[in-house]
User: Fold this.
Amino acid sequence: MQSHRSTPWIQQQSRMIIGAIALSGSLETAYLTWTKLSGTSVACPISNCNDVLNSPYGTIFNLPLPLFGCLAYLTMAGLALGPKLFKNPKTQFSLEQLSWGLMFGLGTAMAICSSYLIYLLAFELRTFCFYCALSAIFSFSLFLLTLVGRSWEDIGQLLFQGLAIGMVTLIGVLGVYNTTQATEAPPITGFQITNVSSPAGLSLAHHLQSIGAKQYGAYWCPHCQQQKQLFGKAAFDLVNYVECDPQGPDPQPQLCRQLGITSYPTWEIQGKFYSGLQSLEALADLSGYQGEQDFQG
Assistant:
């Protein structure tokens, strides 16, 4: 009884806390995986979440990145809560001793992956994603709990193992992304516009050009592609388009940063900014267009 009372509460409850966080993370990533596979939009406080999920970094081996996160969270939940399912004290104790090392290794790998993804978010996509930040909080929390959630006999050896796991994970992540991005990313020139422009679409494009309207986007952005398809090739060629991704064709990332453009597409019309995919009817209203309105013709 005295030994139990002297055990810090965090070590007494660590497995249950780890299991709860991991299950929460699995629900979050499962939702993102479903939205990606179903082609629906993510419910997000800001529109950037869809842009990030649909970027080249949101897919690995033609599978949604959140799917791999979901599998990692479920594995962590199983390792944390699985031993509790066994009634035999000796069996439970043996499984807990075995699983702690696996949990620490998985927690370390997840923290390294989250760190790299946050780097991509900040320095490559230059945007913020609510779900990415939440997942990073989950991952780092799991790592810290596997570190302090039990009394380790040799903390020095544990940290050395963590460093080795972290290096291997980082090398693996860099290798996977370098390989998949080279084969799966859209061409640097962007998606091909296949729709034919209507007379009304051409007239609207001329109007937008005449008033100095601009569309800010990224070559990999699916919503930007949908916006282009609404105009059709001939009409969109008239639109003043600004590429915000440094790797895109004729990019102007500094201008996008100066204007605070974080969501694609974003329209600038007569000094006001409108984020998200806009119908041609909406653009006509926003720009004061008075010409032909049969945009489906």
Observations:
- The first strand starts at residue 59 and ends at 60.
